[in-house]
TrEMBL record:
This is ATP-dependent 6-phosphofructokinase. ADP binds at R21, A22, V23, V24, R25, R154, G185, A186, E187, R211, K213, M214, H215. Homotetramer. Catalyzes the phosphorylation of D-fructose 6-phosphate to fructose 1,6-bisphosphate by ATP, the first committing step of glycolysis. The gene is pfkA. The lineage of its organism: Bacteria, Bacillati, Bacillota, Clostridia, Eubacteriales. It comes from Clostridium tagluense.
Length: 319
C-alpha cells in the first residue's frame, strides 16, 4: 500500500474532520501517501484530488462539517460514472480508498471494491442508521445539539403550559428522537419503527394534564411525519395550545463532542490498518465499545433493530 485516497460523502456529520485527520496522520506515520478527494464521489469523477500532509489536517479536530466538502452524486450511481471514478483512481496511482459517509456512500464503495479497488468505509452520519455499528460518527454531537434545543424549548413550553412538538432528523431511523427523548425527559417519543395513534397520544396528554403536567414535550422523528401538522392536530383535539419546532440542519453542525472525536480518531486509525492488512470491501464499526471491521455487504444487509428496552424506558420515565 503506497498511496491511498480519502473522501467524505453524503450528509456531513460532526467528527468527519477528526476522522479525516486520523486517516491522514496514521497513513503518513506508516509511510503511505495520502490524496484528499474533494466533494465526495463527484470530485472523484472529476479528478479533484490533492496531496495531503500532516499540516493539511492541523486545527480541524474541533471543527464541524468537512474540509474536503461533501456531495451527493447521481452520476456515481451509474456504471459509467463509476468507471470514470475508477479510471481517476488508476491515473493517480491510488491503491486504497477510505470513504467516510453513510449507507449510500458505503454502497458506492462496495461497487468500487468489486471493481478491484481496495475500499474501506468509516461510518459518518448523524442518523446512526447503520445496524452493524453501535455508533456512527456525528450521532452523539447531534444528540447533544438536540438536547440543548429541547432544554430551551422546555423553558418556554412550561411557562406557557403548552405542548411542544419537536421534529428531529434521522431519515427512517428513530435513534436521534429516542435518545433525545430519554435524555431530554420528553413526554412522548414518536419514531418510524413504532409509529403512533393520534387518539392514544391525545389521551395520554389529557391524563397527564389531570395529574398536573405543566407542559408536554413530544419528540417526533422526521421519518414519521411533520411537526406542524401534528401540533395542529393535537391542538384541535385537546384544545391545548401547541407549537411545532423543526430543528433541521442545526443538528448537522457544530464542534464534535468528545465521544465523536474519540470515535473518529480510533476509526480513522483502524481504516488505515485494515487497508494495510490487504483487506477490501470492509467497514469500520464499534461493538461492545471495541473498534471492529466488517464486510460491507454483510453490514449493509443487516436489518435495523430497534432497541426495545430503550423504547420501554422512554415510556416508563415519561409517565
Ligand atoms: P449517505 O452516504 O449519508 O447515506 P447518500 O445516500 O446521499 O448519503 O449517498 C451518498 C452518495 O453515495 C450518493 O450521492 C451516491 O453518489 C453514492 N451512492 C448512494 N447510493 C448508491 C448506490 N446505490 N450505488 C452507487 N452509489 C451510491
Ligand atoms: O442523513 C443525514 C440527514 O441529515 C438526514 O437526517 C436528513 O433526512 C437528510 O440528511 C437531510 O438531507 P439534506 O441535507 O440534503 O437536506
Amino acid at each position: 500500500m503506497k498511496t491511498i485516497a480519502v473522501l467524505t460523502s453524503g450528509g456531513d456529520a460532526p467528527g468527519m474532520n477528526a476522522a479525516l485527520r486520523a486517516v491522514v496522520r496514521m497513513a503518513i506515520y506508516k509511510g503511505i501517501r495520502v490524496m484528499g478527494v474533494q466533494r465526495g464521489y463527484s470530485g472523484l469523477i472529476n479528478g479533484e484530488l490533492f496531496e495531503m500532509d500532516r499540516r493539511s489536517v492541523s486545527d480541524i479536530i474541533h471543527k464541524g462539517g468537512t474540509i474536503l466538502r461533501t456531495a451527493r452524486c447521481e452520476e456515481f450511481k451509474t456504471p459509467e460514472g463509476r468507471e470514470k471514478a475508477a479510471n481517476v483512481l488508476r491515473v493517480f496511482g491510488i491503491d486504497g480508498l477510505v470513504v467516510i459517509g453513510g449507507d449510500g456512500s458505503f454502497t458506492g464503495a462496495q461497487y468500487l471494491s468489486e471493481m478491484g479497488i481496495a475500499t474501506v468505509g468509516i461510518p459518518g452520519t448523524i442518523d446512526n442508521d447503520l445496524p452493524y455499528t453501535e455508533y456512527a460518527i456525528g450521532f452523539d454531537t447531534a444528540l447533544n445539539t438536540v438536547l440543548d434545543a429541547i432544554n430551551k424549548i422546555r423553558d418556554t413550553s412550561s411557562s406557557h403550559e403548552r405542548i411542544s412538538v419537536v421534529e428531529v432528523m434521522g431519515r427512517n431511523c428513530g435513534d436521534i428522537a429516542l435518545h433525545a427523548g430519554i435524555g431530554g425527559g420528553a413526554e412522548k417519543v414518536i419514531i418510524p419503527e413504532k409509529g403512533y395513534e393520534i387518539d392514544d397520544l391525545c389521551k395520554t396528554i389529557f391524563e397527564g394534564k389531570l395529574r398536573g403536567k405543566m407542559h408536554n414535550l413530544i419528540i417526533l422523528a422526521e421519518g414519521v411525519g411533520g411537526a406542524n401538522e401534528l401540533a395542529k392536530e393535537i391542538e384541535e383535539i385537546t384544545g391545548i395550545e401547541s407549537r411545532a419546532t423543526i430543528l433541521g440542519h442545526i443538528q448537522r453542525g457544530g464542534s464534535p463532542s468528545a465521544f465523536d472525536r474519540m470515535l473518529a480518531s480510533r476509526m480513522g486509525v483502524a481504516a488505515v490498518e485494515v487497508l494495510m492488512e490487504g483487506k477490501s470491501g470492509r467497514v469500520i464499526g464499534m461493538r461492545d465499545g471495541k473498534i471492529i471491521d466488517e464486510d460491507i455487504n454483510t453490514a449493509l444487509a443487516m436489518p435495523r433493530k430497534l432497541d426495545e428496552e430503550l423504547y420501554e424506558i422512554s415510556k416508563i420515565l415519561s409517565y
